[in-house]
Amino acid sequence: MATLDDVSGLTAERMRRMSPGNQGKLPPVDRTGLPPGPRWPVLVQTAGLLRFRHRFHPYMRRKYGDVFTVRLAPGGRPLVFFTRPEHAKEIFAGDPEIFHAGKANGILGPIMGEHSLLLQDGGEHKRARKLLMPAFNGHALREYESLVTEVARAEIDGWRDGQEFRALDRMNSLTLEVILRVVFGVTDERRLAELRPRVNKTVNISPAILLGWGYPWLQKVGPWKATVDNQRELDELMYAEIRERRTASDLAERTDVLSRLILQGEEGDRPGDRLKDTELRDQLVTLLLAGHETTASALAWALYETGRDPELLARCQRAAAEGDDDLLEAVLKESMRLHPIIPMVVRTLMEPATIAGWDLPKGTTVGPSIIIAHQREDNHPDPEVFRPDRFLGHNPPPNTWIPFGGGVRRCIGAGFSLMEGVAVLREVFTAYDVTALGSDEPKVRNITSVPRRGARIRVTAR
Fold first, then answer.
1. Cβ distance 174 to 159 under 8 Å?
2. Which long-range contacts (CB under 8 A, 24 or more apart) does 244-251 make?
3. CA-CA distance, 167 to 198, in Å (whole number)?
């Protein structure tokens, strides 16, 4: 087994151990009696779900009703979708020992690592979440906010009066800087310059690379080899940062997520409270992948949609000036509703279970469709209209707005994402008028959806 002195070996070992063929096998599924679904070839269904999700989900619901089954490669494994809020409630409230979430994220295993919060289930997940939660509580978020504001201000100070650009590109750059400085806690400009391109290559990984993890020989050629090389270089930088942080003289005064996790482990009463370097690395990469492009896409849509409505823009500018964060948060939430970044929340049944009256066998993967939940007329009246007031003074009914999932697996970074988004919008609307340029629509990019044309906007100094 490789040690921390052999980072290259650690990377290779993780890639091998977490490849789809070496992860725990999913139980076989009895496919009789499943909800209705298309009889198309498995590859066609898989392509429809992954590539054309924004049309595929609504079409399936129109044709087959509120519960339907899709069969996916490899092997035609069934994925049963549920589209009503009461269905989502049943799934989110399901016994976490039976409703496993980690297995559904297994394709990201070679990058995230076995300790990733997104890949763990049962007692391991409970332990990891308990250790991570203090770094994302209300007190911690208030301390991060000033750092996020500083990063946002530095980004916006580089904009020019009358400049036109893709909001997605600028928000991606900004949220990456937030991850590196506020989450990783890196302040040395030399290391930041080394990390940025390697982190970008990790985030920008293509579906072909993800699907190729099942064929180890591919890791020796072409883009797969380049991905492995990039992972090794990123690991070298991250482990170096972790080692140096453990011995930093100002560790107790630092407020970044990495420093908090290290301190919490050292102050714990039990040996299991201490996160190992490999655990820290896996959790940091998870936060990177889960919190970078997702927040950037939500912000890009928020700026674009606000830029289409002069009255809403004026309200947002007043809110920014008066410190009214409620409206800015409502704008961010509505952008996540109208333009969902993740299409679904999934669980794999480790034992038979009954959901929405359907008796489903062990091994079935189930989940609410975020896309459908966010566009149902009975969940959100006039669902095609961008209307932030839906979120002012009240919340939508439970399980109708689920961008962060739900239950014990609800995204641990949800509060951080909303805080970051509000801080960024506050800085933008304080300094600039925003005008949307042209039309835009969602485009599938890896496991996320982003504005196809980048949410182009023009900014005019106030």
1. no
2. 245/185
3. 22
Q: Locate 297 and state its tokens.
A: 């896409």
Does residue 197 sit within a domain? Answer: yes
Beta-carbon count within 10 A of 203 CB: 19
Q: Is the pLDDT of residue 2 over 70?
A: no
CA distance linking residue 211 with residue 20, whole number of Å: 9
Q: Give the residue-averaged pLDDT of 375-389.
A: 97
Using an 8 Å Cβ cutoff, are 361 and 349 in contact? yes
Q: Is 337 helix (H, G, I), strand (E, B) or coil?
A: helix
Do 97 and 122 touch, CB atoms closer than 8 A?
Answer: yes
| In a domain? residue 2 | no
**pLDDT over 90, % of the chain:** 74
Distance CA(85)–CA(376), nearest Å, equals 10
CA 447 to CA 462: how far, in whole Å? 37
Residue 4 has pLDDT above 70, yes or no: no
The domain that contains 61 carries what CATH number?
Answer: 1.10.630.10
Return all residues near 25 (Cβ < 8 A) that are at least 6 apart: none
Show Cβ contacts of residue 338 under 8 Å, excluding neighbours closer than 6 positions: 301, 305, 374, 383, 384, 386
- The answer as to whether 381 is a domain residue is yes
User: What is the extent of the structural domain holding 86?
Assistant: 7-461
Calculate helix-pair angle for 167-178, 414-431, nearest 10 degrees: 130
* Short-list 177, 175, 149, 171, CA closest to 159: 171
